[in-house]
Amino acid sequence: MSQLARDLYPLAGRKEELSKSIVEIDRVKIGAGKPVIMAGPCAVEDREQIFTTARTVKESGGEILRGGVFKPRTSPYSFQGLGKEGLELLAEVKEETGLLIVTEVMDVRDIDLVAEYADILQIGSRNMQHYPLLREVGKVDMPVLLKRGMTATIKEWLLAAEYILRNGNQQVILCERGIRGFQEYTRNILDISAVPVVRQLSHLPIIIDPSHATGHSELVTPLAKAGVIAGADGVMVEVHPNPEQALCDGEQSLDLPTFQKLVRNLKLLPSNSEQEI
């Protein structure tokens, strides 16, 4: 890494003595070479939906359950999430399945509440440059999943990570979830190149979210595989028992059999520890 990059990212930048960080939560290690599967519905809707999904995620080999309870929707009239009720359902699911929980926190005032139930705090794309929020999660002793802003450069993304690191929290996981482009077929454009670029510039682990990147369930599997081959430390995908009935993002959600097939396919790929930087 160049001296300029070291100066730009004094904490997130890759160092000779620290080529790769591993974020470890209980038995799960993100950045240790084996791609980690994070999966679940865009939003927790009810008990049956989240328990059915979680059981399949667990049985298929997933290790972390994603499920939104505070939803940053474009329209104020769209489903906004179950809030605390959703967090309580996630806690029950964790008790039964043993899956770790990642869910989004949108407001500084909700950090303590979400941290009580979650294992990983997610900062969504829309809040990547919400600097007061970044500062406050930087004071929490638990992992933070930082999604790339939909119009953010890699430089801006890594500098957002610096806000968290500078406030004391060294457990940062980056997530490439697609950026805005001019074409209209996919929801966003998955920047596969961001994976090897980040691995050159930073010691932080990086995962990909092909669901939000594409907006189309049939594109999730090929791009998940591409991300792992490129060196991603994991994938985050949306899964729903009945995608056509989902309250949000059903068109990009995998049904349960398709998710099971995706996990089988990913297990056949070389781990990212075999990918050269």
Automatic annotation (TrEMBL):
The UniProt entry, under Pfam families, shows: DAHP_synth_1
**Locate the DAHP synthetase I/KDSA domain: which residues?**
24-264
Gene3D superfamilies, per this entry?
Aldolase class I
Question: What keywords appear on the UniProt entry?
Answer: Transferase
Entry GO MF terms: aldehyde-lyase activity; transferase activity
SUPFAM superfamilies (alphabetical)? Aldolase
What is the superkingdom listed in this entry's lineage? Bacteria
Q: Which GO terms describe its biological process?
A: aromatic amino acid family biosynthetic process
Keyword Transferase appears in the UniProt entry: yes
In terms of PANTHER family, this protein maps to: PHOSPHO-2-DEHYDRO-3-DEOXYHEPTONATE ALDOLASE, PROTEIN AROA(G)
Cite the NCBIfam families for this sequence.
DAHP_synth_Bsub, PRK08673.1, PRK12595.1
* Protein name (Swiss-Prot/TrEMBL): 3-deoxy-D-arabinoheptulosonate-7-phosphate synthase
Query: Where does this protein come from, organism-wise?
Result: Selenihalanaerobacter shriftii
